[in-house]
Amino acid sequence: MLSNYQRSADKLAANLKAAGIQDSAVLQSISEIPRHLFVDDILQHKSYENTALPIGQGQTISQPYIVARMTEVLRQFGISRNVLEVGTGSGYQTAVLAKLFENVFSIERIKTLQWQAKRRLHQLDLYNVSMKHGDGWLGWQSKAPFDGIIVTAAASVVPEQLLAQLADGGAMVIPLGVDEQILTLFTKSEGKITQQALAPVRFVPLVAGPIS
Ligand code: SAH
């Protein structure tokens, strides 16, 4: 697997292009990140398929199409400086972002997942990522404002604290809803927030309450 992953990653990027991803820098990042390193050994044979996969603790690594689409949406705003990710999980989306943004900040509430993700990113020499074990509903106030915010778990209500940490001219992509979820885009311009529904999606919930 390790020896021929490059062909698999290139094929995945080609599939995502066929599925409608247009940003060539995003597709490039997908071909550069070895997704098999972000899943358990027994799932490696599926790691370049365009599907979500379990990563333990009841969580999932997101479907590559969704990772690419959410990244592409943020880049449409010319955002390149700093981005906040809520829900590090496996760290795969984090790695894709790290290739495209100057500084990536990522928050995860489950410590074991955060440790694993940190180890993988160092293994890939991606050092422009700062990670925090904490509650993503609160964002990361000391690093705000963010040009981009990407939430990779579904929020039952709009996280107002995240919107408050969005820079003027910035954009946030987030799945909203419980059973029925809609990927939603928020933009901020001269302090005014605009909301736009993008597509139906399926994510694990953005959990409220104590972290573990
Ligand atoms: N981008 C990740 C998605 C992982 S699934 C990937 O592709 O691997 C969503 C993640 O969000 C899970 O790891 C879950 O633990 C985390 N999460 C859920 N609620 C959270 C919260 N309130 N704060 C921080 N992380 C949270």
From TrEMBL:
<keyword id="KW-0949">S-adenosyl-L-methionine</keyword>
<dbReference type="InterPro" id="IPR000682">
    <property type="entry name" value="PCMT"/>
</dbReference>
<dbReference type="InterPro" id="IPR029063">
    <property type="entry name" value="SAM-dependent_MTases_sf"/>
</dbReference>
<protein>
    <recommendedName>
        <fullName>Protein-L-isoaspartate O-methyltransferase</fullName>
        <ecNumber>2.1.1.77</ecNumber>
    </recommendedName>
</protein>
<comment type="function">
    <text>Catalyzes the methyl esterification of L-isoaspartyl residues in peptides and proteins that result from spontaneous decomposition of normal L-aspartyl and L-asparaginyl residues. It plays a role in the repair and/or degradation of damaged proteins.</text>
</comment>
<dbReference type="Pfam" id="PF01135">
    <property type="entry name" value="PCMT"/>
</dbReference>
<dbReference type="GO" id="GO:0004719">
    <property type="term" value="F:protein-L-isoaspartate (D-aspartate) O-methyltransferase activity"/>
</dbReference>
<dbReference type="GO" id="GO:0005737">
    <property type="term" value="C:cytoplasm"/>
</dbReference>
<dbReference type="GO" id="GO:0030091">
    <property type="term" value="P:protein repair"/>
</dbReference>
<dbReference type="GO" id="GO:0032259">
    <property type="term" value="P:methylation"/>
</dbReference>
<keyword id="KW-0808">Transferase</keyword>
<keyword id="KW-0489">Methyltransferase</keyword>
<feature type="active site">
    <location>
        <position position="62"/>
    </location>
</feature>
<comment type="similarity">
    <text>Belongs to the methyltransferase superfamily. L-isoaspartyl/D-aspartyl protein methyltransferase family.</text>
</comment>
<keyword id="KW-0963">Cytoplasm</keyword>
